[in-house]
From TrEMBL:
One of the GO BP terms on file: proteolysis
PA domain span: 91-184
CDD domains (UniProt xref): PA_2 (cd04819)
GO molecular function: carboxypeptidase activity; metal ion binding; metallopeptidase activity
Record carries keyword Magnesium: no
Protein name: Carboxypeptidase Q
Sequence ranges assigned to domain Peptidase M28 in this UniProt record: 208-390
Length: 435
């Protein structure tokens, strides 16, 4: 064991791939940079010894960001359009809805401009996704949507609106910094403001990158990430680090391939940031073959903090596997048993497939630097990537072991858990409820 650990702890493969990804710049879904990231990742997986590295391309709705502004009084306030916002201008009375909790929308917002925070109170039982807040505003009749960052630093947040059936949203939507949001609330709440968005939607292409290791068995373990990022930053943490982790784990597993009792497939999905499009496509492609998947290790937000955090979605055996690796290495790893329906594991987990959402613990709630101009490489370090690659490599071997059993769940059990954890209302309003 010591040899592969030493090789992983001194490896530059994952970190070099992360640097290559962030140096592309714009990896927005459907943009040329996303295609470049696919090709770089395909080649990197092949170079570390994974077999049949390939790209599965598919069509998506592309979107280009233009100029946006919030005009209030005689001022123009800085903002950025939220991806898949329609190209429109709307005016109305500014209403600050605070955190934008479901109960905050229990009012008539007809013709008004609704502003909400990007976070929820510390005591609140669940995180409320941006898209849920957006569609609550749409249902309440709002004319426009303003998404206010809760992280200081003059950083307007981005993040998509729209649904799979209707990719372009219903009302213009922009992100503003914490500071701009505070200014709007202080000076202009109750007054008419104008939200203006210029953008373009068009047919485009994305894709998923696949590669394989291990024996040709009936069961397989998926090690996944997403390749795309928002166009405003490098996308280092979200999710260059996750894709770099997949490459580093593939390198380590190639040296341990004889230890694998089950087939391991690496999948780096495209178009995650615009509605989990790539992973939904792969889940649909597999159909009943999803029964082959023993477990999914989905990396989205790894490397930001020293301690890995695993959402286990109520699969006790997944928690047991994390605990076994944590004890084996005497290294802290945390588990969260609840559902997390917001990354590329979800199109599989919703059908009862065991899956992790793997991130890293950080201070505060929400994405932190993610989805802002500040999601840059300087926030990360090679040591953390290497340490976590050791743990995730061992976890993958543990999951692939023939003695590790991970029972699947019935989809109705996942639905019941979502209801019990108060996710169902939000998923229904965003069109993400699959049951």
């Amino acid at each position: 064991m010591a040899e592969w650990i030493a090789e992983t702890f001194t490896s530059d493969v994952g970190w070099d791939h992360l640097r290559s990804l962030v140096d592309i710049g714009d990896r927005m879904a459907g943009h040329p940079g996303e295609r470049e990231a696919m090709e770089l990742t395909r080649d990197a997986l092949s170079d570390v010894g994974a077999r049949d590295a390939r790209i599965d391309a598919f069509e998506i709705q592309g979107w280009d960001r233009g100029e946006s502004v919030v005009r209030a009084g005689d001022t123009e306030q800085d903002c950025i359009a939220l991806p898949r916002s329609p190209s429109e201008e709307a005016s109305g009375e500014l209403v600050d809805l605070g955190y934008g909790l479901p109960e905050d929308f229990d009012r008539d917002l007809s013709g008004k401009v609704a502003m909400v925070s990007s976070t929820v109170p510390d005591h609140y039982e669940r995180f409320i996704h941006r898209r849920e807040k957006y569609y609550h505003a749409v249902e309440a009749g709002a004319a426009a949507f303003v998404f206010r960052n809760h992280v200081q630093g003059c950083l307007p947040p981005t993040g998509s609106v729209g649904t799979e059936e209707s990719p372009i949203g219903d009302i213009p939507a922009v992100g503003v910094s914490k500071e701009v949001g505070a200014r709007l609330a202080r000076r202009f709440e109750g007054e008419d403001v104008t939200v203006s968005v210029e953008c373009e939607a068009y047919p485009a292409e994305s894709g998923n990158v696949h590669a394989e290791l291990g024996p040709d068995t009936e069961e397989e373990v998926l090690v996944t990430s997403h390749l795309d990022a928002h166009d405003i930053a490098e996308g280092a943490l979200d999710n260059g680090a996750g894709t770099a982790m997949v490459v580093e784990v593939a390198r380590a597993l190639a040296a341990r391939e004889e230890e694998l009792d089950a087939h391991v497939r690496f999948v780096c999905f495209g178009a995650e940031e615009v509605g989990l499009v790539g992973s939904a496509r792969e889940s649909d492609r597999m159909g009943e073959d999803r029964e082959r998947i023993k477990a999914i290790v989905n990396n989205d937000g790894v490397g930001g903090g020293r301690t890995l955090s695993f959402y286990t979605h109520g699969f006790d055996a997944l928690g047991d596997a994390v605990e076994a690796v944590s004890e084996r290495f005497d290294h802290p790893m945390s588990t969260v048993p609840e559902q997390m329906p917001h990354s590329d594991h979800w199109p599989f987990v919703q059908h009862g497939v065991p899956g992790y959402m793997v991130a890293s613990e950080s201070e505060g709630r929400g994405r932190g630097w993610g989805h802002t101009f500040a999601d840059t490489l300087d926030k990360l370090e090679p040591r953390t990537l290497r340490e976590q690659a050791i743990l995730l490599t061992e976890l993958t071997v543990e999951l692939a072991d023939e003695d590790t059993e991970v029972p699947k769940k019935a989809p109705e059990d996942i639905a019941a858990a979502l209801e019990a954890e108060d996710h169902a209302e939000g998923m229904k309003i965003t069109g993400d409820w699959p049951y």
